[in-house]
What we know:
heterodimer, A: 259 residues, alpha+beta, 11 strands, 30% helix, 18% strand, disordered C terminus, B: 618 residues, alpha/beta, 5-stranded mixed sheet, 4-stranded mixed sheet, 25 helices, 40% helix
Amino acid sequence: MVTLTINGKVVQAEKGEYLLAVIRRMGIDVPALCHHEAVEPYGGCRLCMVEITKESWNGWKNHVTACLYPAEQDLIVSTHSDTIIELRKSLLDLFLARNPHTPLIQKLAAEHGLTKTTFEVVPEPNDCILCGICTRVCDEMGFSAISMVNRGHGREVAPPLHQPPPACVGCLACAQACPTRYIKYEDNGATRKIWDRTFELLTCEKTGRPTITREFAEYLSEHRDLPKEYFRVNDESHRGELVSTMAAITRWSVTEEKK
Amino acid sequence: MRIESEKQLRDYRKKLVDADRKLTKKIMVCHGPGCLASGSEQISEEFTKQLAKKRIAGVTVEAVKKTGCHSFCEKSPLVAIEPAQILYTKVKVKDVAEIIEKSVAGDEVIERLVYHDPHSNEAIATYPDVPFYKYQTRLALRNLGKINACDIDDYIRVGGYDGAAKALLHMTPENVIDEITKSNLRGRGGGGFPAGRKWASCRAVESDVRYVVCNGDEGDPGAFMDRAIMEGDPHTVLEGMVVAAFAVGANDGYIYVREEYPLAVINLQKAIEQAEGLGLLGDNILGTGFSLRIHINRGAGAFVCGESSALMLSVAGNVGEPRAKYVRSVVKGLWDKPTVLNNVETYANVPLIITNGAEWFTSIGAPKNAGTKAFSLVGKVRHTGLIEVPMGTTLRRIVFDIGGGLLKDRPFKGVQTGGPSGGCLAEKHLDLSVDFDTLTTHGSMMGSGGMIVMDDRTCMVDVAKYFLSFLVSESCGKCIPCREGLYQLHKLAIAISEGRGTEQDIEKMERLSEMVVLGSLCGLGKSGPNPFLSTISNFRDEYLAHIRDHRCPAGVCRELITYEINPEKCDGCMACISACAVHAITGRKTKPHVINQELCTKCGACVAACTRDAIAVF
């Protein structure tokens, strides 16, 4: 255990635990758009940046992303210094120029006193905030069906060559994890359409309602050594938890395999 | 054969030196990229062909050396005759016979082919007297132009692998790290981080596996120092890596070379094979039991892959995107193992420091900035090329003495150092000492060593716009301040260059720049606003002229300029009429011509075509 100070309060944390977890445990509100419990921290949105220093640093300060900085003994963290607030506002200003119509961004910006971007809105704005949660979840699940393509301002999330991705099993993890609900899919009871691919849905034996896709069930029974019936429940009942459940299962079975 | 002891290395070298003494003359033909492009391959072939036919005592075909870059690229193709140190510039295949007859068989200098001082037109026959070379101190570039890059014997003959032998046979890894630390060798890739400290912290991490990596990505527009070293003296890079690997305890090394440098890949590959053949690389180096395998990785041409964490991910086969470096790569680098990553030029300095000692190295250069730095000198300077000067040399010496001043003696405006994310220094900075610390204090940086000289016809708003556009497209796009912030900075710079900007825009750009510097994940973003920040601090007037007067003082920004023909000067030669692609110029022969401003696209072709300087830019 290490002892550190966050916003003037002395707290204990596991050594190496990321600051964001400690901060959130204390009930302090620090925004983070690219952070998701199911996947490794990324440091892309920069909103969780905090100011850090130590007595021994002689006044020298550093600005780091709380999602990636490990808790250290004697660290002095400030989550809402003037510079940090100014930085968050500028970042949200830039987000608003890219995603002007996205409710999540509008809400977060409004909380920081911004209703409209001070910059030029990009041509053809959309709701993708490029947080990379979808691609990382897809990687974590073991499919890597979608990824970030192009670099710089032309960056976007897409399947290879913008074609229906062969590696996709229609698990919906990407769509469920997307904080802005930008990734669209259609379920009509018998089939599911996502990334321009159509999957057949299995039916829950008890309720007769659709469950997961045949491809996903096959994948799980083949690669994860789980009975086929394991997932034959209605996934609507645990939409929100699906991603983390899947990720946990994936991780668990990967560690099992290694053993 | 394999060299397995110091004595064997010494004997091997003695044999090579003796064989070399038999050659009374040597013909060094530059095979650097500039010279190759102007036909040096044909020139060296012609020399070989003619020497094979002609019998000259002491001169066999071995006398022709295909060397690395002679560095005076402006005057390519270059041929030097040793030992007389004669330098022939702009040599053509048809000159070969004359050179053989007069300077190889005889001792005559062909005046027509030597360098002529642009001011006095005086002929200067030997290269140490040419101002371009006179003020240089070449350490990292010591072997360029002196040895055949693809011949390990040439490298060994001039003292190659001596540093590695000394380190492996007479020093402990701790001794080596001590020596490098004492020499104060700082990272030549631009960061300036002390190499000794890096090596020591890597060695201190407990791990069964460690790696050494060489950064040969060099993505800066106009920079070619690392390329020249990898192509022209690949063994020095390998030797530096052997020493580093021995010091930190690594058995695998990776050289990351950008895809645009195919010749560097070929020459490095050959060098690795030759060194492994002689037992100077690979398993059981010099019979010491120490092994190092060096692998070459080719980068696919992403600027961000020069950033260390992105480079290591790229080597490991992932997308080259930076990651937060709160855990440093000396602790968790390539495949999460402790890794030392240095740049090509840094490694090139290592063998020299080991051979000559740290004290010798610190005696060169400036305080806290020991040694030399290589630069590629380009832009509106008379003598473009590759140079290496002691740290602390002034910009004035570089631009005016080595570079020979500005093209057509136009007024000097600024010099851009440190690559796209570096900064522009102004005339008042000409007497600054060029070293890591001084450049950083003045808002620029050393970077990898690109140096672009600008004259009064360079618009600084345009320069900022250009470098920002480069960075916008080369940003990996992972983090918002870099991806969106640089994009918005670029948009605002465009607005100013088109006369649509306001003074509030400047303030907005300054504020945004501050946030991009503060918020970005890696060095690319953190230094990304530099092109704007340095131009606004040194050339604010020029921004204001665009904003307040809708005028581009340098006559560059298309939206703000007009071309006009001065009827007094125009003799009606019709040259501009045929140069104009959009038929905006009309007039009859011998009568002054007129430009139709509605049609004019401001391409500048007419100005270039006019022989009487009759077209003015407003």
